[in-house]
Amino acid sequence: MSKHTIPTVKLLIDGQFIESTTSEWRDVVNPATQEVLARVPFATADEMARAVAGAKAAFATWRKTPIGARARVFLKYQQLIRENMAELAALLTAEQGKTLADAEGDIFRGLEVVEYAAGIGQLQMGELANNVANGVDTYTLLQPLGVCAGITPFNFPAMIPLWMFPMAIACGNTFVLKPSEQDPMVTMRLAELALQAGIPAGVLNVVHGGEAVVNAICDHPDIKAVSFVGSSRVGSHVYQRATQAGKRAQCMMGAKNHAVVLPDANRQQTLDNLAGAAFGAAGQRCMALSVLVLVGAARDWLPELVARAQTLTLNAGAEAGADIGPLISPAAKARVVKLIGQGVEEGATLLLDGRAPTVAGYQDGNFVGPTVFADVTSAMRIYTEEIFGPVLCVMQAATLQEAIAIVNANPNGNGVALFTQSGAAARSFQEEVDVGQIGINVPIPVPVPLFSFTGSRASKLGDLGPYGKQVLSFYTQTKTITTRWFDDAASAGKVNTTISLK
Question: By its UniProt entry, which PROSITE patterns does this protein fall under (predicted)?
Answer without folding.
Answer: ALDEHYDE_DEHYDR_CYS
